[in-house]
């Protein structure tokens, strides 16, 4: 049956946690430290054996966990990925060449690491295994590794941290980048891995499926990306939160173009298999939020897959975002946006405006007016796609939306946008970064500030600014 825009929305929503995204994939929920000894292609709940009381206090950050056994990069060449961490759960993903796996989970405590459980008899056979771990302790560091059936050969371990308990606050630190492209082995991601962030945001164009550097399809492109040193280092250090942009499918793709629907669905399935994530409410299922207590709420948008009928995002996504911002208890509301919402008409003069919020003035004004008129404080937009780093005012000087800020993150590896050589810091673009970079954010709810630091390939700070929002 030929795909339609409506069938794209329905089909995309079916490529979700618990629905077996791909032949042979296992995705099931595991509660606490249960040793299940089972496997399957649908979500299965298991008994909760975790008896710890949730804590409002941050758990310790012990030195890196070194599991027993021998790391085998031939059997586990892609590492282990964790994604969309919440206060008591996380999604874990591994793809490997072993037929039968055992997952081991440990938790950080004051004197190192303690066992938090295992899951056995996970069937892989050269495919992807995804598991959602539940009933974890909030604001606690965990690490996970997978073993082959001989019990000796294993993956590299991956660390992640759960989110804060509702009502709790502390400084939350996260990183973000976009547009990875070339510049292998992505040294900015290696430097980011040393920060042990609470989470790391990928803002799109993580792969360039339209000009592959080795693979010939979406799965192959993602496998190439997951094996690159910087990505391996990053996924060993923290959980990911990711959205897509155009190059995960093809350059400037439009879902109304003939044949693009089927291609977008194939890309979305490969994306979900590569970067573990939860499904959002409707549409492509990519828009969703993750809250870290009363410190930070991350609103992850899909600014690519819902461009129907002259809209940049669906009205459902717009209403969800407006309601979420209005009702969030978090001091800071971070809106992750694959393409900038900043008014860049003074840079591009209308060129390719339909590929940015600039080309959708009604919806752009709708969300920006909502933030201003509702006096929603603590909003910070972050974006990819621009191929240069920037700390910008969303509106031009003197405009109604000048008080809102947006940070352009990256590129981590793609060629710099030539327009950056025409830009210098001014009242609209306060920082202009003309190097490969990732951005480190430190959100301090007590001070009401967000520190924004652009980090270069060599780990040095290119630019650093503290915002009061």
What does this protein look like?
This protein has 469 residues and is α/β, with parallel strands linked by helices. It folds into two domains: 24-155, Immunoglobulin-like (Sandwich); 172-468, Alkaline phosphatase D (PhoD) (Purple Acid Phosphatase, chain A, domain 2). The protein has eight helices and 23 strands. The protein has helices at 5-14, 187-193, 218-227, 229-237, 260-274, 315-327, 345-348, 361-373, and strands at residues 26-31, 70-71, 80-83, 90-95, 100-109, 112-123, 128-134, 141-148, 153-154, 158-161, 172-177, 199-202, 240-242, 288-292, 296-300, 332-337, 379-383, 389-393, 405-408, 429-433, 438-444, 449-455, 461-468. The strands form five sheets. A seven-stranded mixed β-sheet has the order 14-15-16-17-19-18-20, covered by helices on one side. A six-stranded mixed β-sheet has the order 13-12-11-21-22-23, covered by helices on one side. α3 packs parallel to α5 (260-274). The longest helix has 15 residues, at 260-274.
Quick overview of this protein structure:
Helices cover about 15% and strands about 30% of the residues. With about 475 residues, the chain is an alpha/beta fold. The protein starts with a helix and ends with a strand.
How much of the sequence is in beta strands? 25-35%
Show unreliable segments.
15-27, 30-51
Query: How large is the radius of gyration?
Result: 21 Å
Stated plainly, the CATH topology of the largest domain is called Purple Acid Phosphatase, chain A, domain 2
- Just name the CATH architecture of the largest domain: 4-Layer Sandwich
- Tally the helices: 8
């Amino acid at each position: 049956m030929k795909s339609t825009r409506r069938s794209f929305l329905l089909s995309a929503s079916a490529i979700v946690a618990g629905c077996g995204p791909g032949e042979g994939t296992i995705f099931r929920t595991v509660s606490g430290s249960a040793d299940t000894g089972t496997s399957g292609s649908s979500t299965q709940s298991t008994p909760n054996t975790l008896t710890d009381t949730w804590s409002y206090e941050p758990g310790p950050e012990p030195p890196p966990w070194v599991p027993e056994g021998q790391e085998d990069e031939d059997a586990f060449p892609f590492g282990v990925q964790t994604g969309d961490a919440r206060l008591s759960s996380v999604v874990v993903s591994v793809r490997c060449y072993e037929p039968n796996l055992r997952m081991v989970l440990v938790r950080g405590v004051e004197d190192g690491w303690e066992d938090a459980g295992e899951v056995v008899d996970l069937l892989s056979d050269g495919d992807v295994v995804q598991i959602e771990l539940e009933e974890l302790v909030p604001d606690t560091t965990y690490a996970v590794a997978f073993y082959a059936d001989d019990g000796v050969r294993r993956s590299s371990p991956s660390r992640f941290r759960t989110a804060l308990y509702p009502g709790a606050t502390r400084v939350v630190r996260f990183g973000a980048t976009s547009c990875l492209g070339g510049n292998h082995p992505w040294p900015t991601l290696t430097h980011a891995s040393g920060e042990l962030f609470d989470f790391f945001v990928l803002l799109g164009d993580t792969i360039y499926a339209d000009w592959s550097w080795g693979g010939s399809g979406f799965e192959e492109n993602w496998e190439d990306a997951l094996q690159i040193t910087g990505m391996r280092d990053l996924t060993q250090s923290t959980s990911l939160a990711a959205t897509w942009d155009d190059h995960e499918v093809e350059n400037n793709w439009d879902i109304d173009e003939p044949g693009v629907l089927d291609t977008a669905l194939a890309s979305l399935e490969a994306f979900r298999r590569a970067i573990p994530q939860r499904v959002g409410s409707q549409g492509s299922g990519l828009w969703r939020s993750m809250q870290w207590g009363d410190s930070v709420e991350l609103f992850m948008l899909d600014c690519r897959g819902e461009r129907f009928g002259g809209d940049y995002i669906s009205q459902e996504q717009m209403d969800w975002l407006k309601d979420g911002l209005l009702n969030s208890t978090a001091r800071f509301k971070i809106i992750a946006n694959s393409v900038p919402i900043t008014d860049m008409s003074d840079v591009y003069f209308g060129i390719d405006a339909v590929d940015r919020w600039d080309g959708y003035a009604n919806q752009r004004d709708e969300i920006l007016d909502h933030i201003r008129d509702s006096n929603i404080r603590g909003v910070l937009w972050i974006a990819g796609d621009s191929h240069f780093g920037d700390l910008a005012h969303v509106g031009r000087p003197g405009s109604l939306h000048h008080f809102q800020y947006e940070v352009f993150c990256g590129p981590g590896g793609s060629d710099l946008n030539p327009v950056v050589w025409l830009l210098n810091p001014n009242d609209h673009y306060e920082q202009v970064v003309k190097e490969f970079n990732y951005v480190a954010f430190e959100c301090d709810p007590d001070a009401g500030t967000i520190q924004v630091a652009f980090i270069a390939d060599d780990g040095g700070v290119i630019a650093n600014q503290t915002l009061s929002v």
